[in-house]
Amino acid sequence: MEESTNHHRKLERMYLSAPVNREIYDGITIAVSDERAELTLPISDKFFHAAHTIHGSVYFKLLDDAAFFAVNSIVNDVFVYTVSFNIQLLRPVTGGLVRAVGELQFKSSNLFIADSVLYDQKGRVVGRGSGNFMKSKIELTETIGYQ
């Protein structure tokens, strides 16, 4: 259990140290547990398209990241990668805090499937995602922020 928890904390630190999360998605949080990951992001207008709601790329990032870390939560040696990912944009988001929850649905020796759901501040489902993930050859090391 302790080894698993240590792995989860290292994944969280790796995620938060990534330049995209430090510089663009500042304020993002992540909590990783076995076969599950949860992210939150305070929405600001820098994420908006011309119609003043968050751009689909923000939905994708949060849904993919939640599903990705649900998978990597049980892969202790290497970085996984997204093979394919499908999303459904269900409601516009204009502000507040959004929360993405990813859960592992299927695992084999090298193929993993995870689903994720994006909620707005009122707890309404605003997006859904499902992805296929595989193990890469990139080892989880301090070089990539896994520390």
Report on this model:
- The protein has 147 residues and is of the alpha+beta class.
- The protein has one domain (2-144): Roll (Thiol Ester Dehydrase, Chain A), CATH 3.10.129.
- The protein has helices spanning 2-17, 19-23, 56-72, and strands at residues 29-33, 36-42, 78-89, 97-107, 111-119, 125-139.
- A 6-stranded antiparallel β-sheet has the order 1-2-4-5-6-3.
- The two termini are 18 Å apart.
- The model has no long low-confidence stretch (mean pLDDT 96).
Which regions have little confidence, pLDDT < 50, spanning 5+ residues?
none
CATH topology: Thiol Ester Dehydrase, Chain A
What oligomerization state is this entry in? single chain
The level 1 CATH classification is: Alpha Beta
Major sheet strand order = 1-2-4-5-6-3
Largest sheet: 6 strands, antiparallel
What is the arithmetic mean of pLDDT? Answer: 96
Question: What's the CATH architecture?
Answer: Roll
**DSSP strand content:** 35-45%
CATH superfamily: Hotdog Thioesterase
What's the alpha carbon Rg, rounded to whole Å? 15 Å
Secondary structure tally, helices: 3
Which percent bin holds the helix content? 25-40%
Overall morphology: globular
Count the domains: 1
Count of individual beta strands: 6
Class derived from helix and strand content: alpha+beta
Distance between the termini: 18 Å
Topology as a string of helices (H) and strands (E): HHEEHEEEE
